[in-house]
Amino acid sequence: xxxxxxxxGLYLLTGIVFYGYQGxxxxxxxxxxAMVSFxxxxxxxxxxxxxxLFWMNLPILSLLFVTSLFTDSFVIALPYLIFTPLVSxxxxxxxxxxxxxxxxxxxxxxxxxxxxxxxxxxxNTEAFDSSYWETYSRLVKR
Length: 142
Known about the structure:
The chain has six helices and no strands. Helix 1 (6-17) packs antiparallel against helix 2 (22-41) and helix 2 (22-41) runs parallel beside helix 4. It is globular and about 45 Å long. The chain has one domain. By secondary structure, it is an all-alpha fold. It starts with 5 loop residues before the first helix and ends with a helix.
């Protein structure tokens, strides 16, 4: 329960860094979530890891799900609802040494798949939108 705000904090952090551009927020959020989860629970027992990962992901997933029901952003929340639990499963297997290789390969595959899945679902034909980078560079140079 004490880790319940980590997911929301990481989502807000990626939102600030990428100025709310969901196409880049999703892969970065998944990578940060995997790293923080792995580092937080790597020396814990199985039961504690399971409950810790559950409480780390439940608030952000429920927040995204509930807000997407009341707005028109279900398409944006769908990749988060799909890929975040998959990352948690990979982290769970990575903490125990017999399955560690699955974690590293799986995280790479999930991050790349989430990037292209978001672009496919949102209807974005340009995977690397240059207008976003122009806006971002103007904000950073201020």
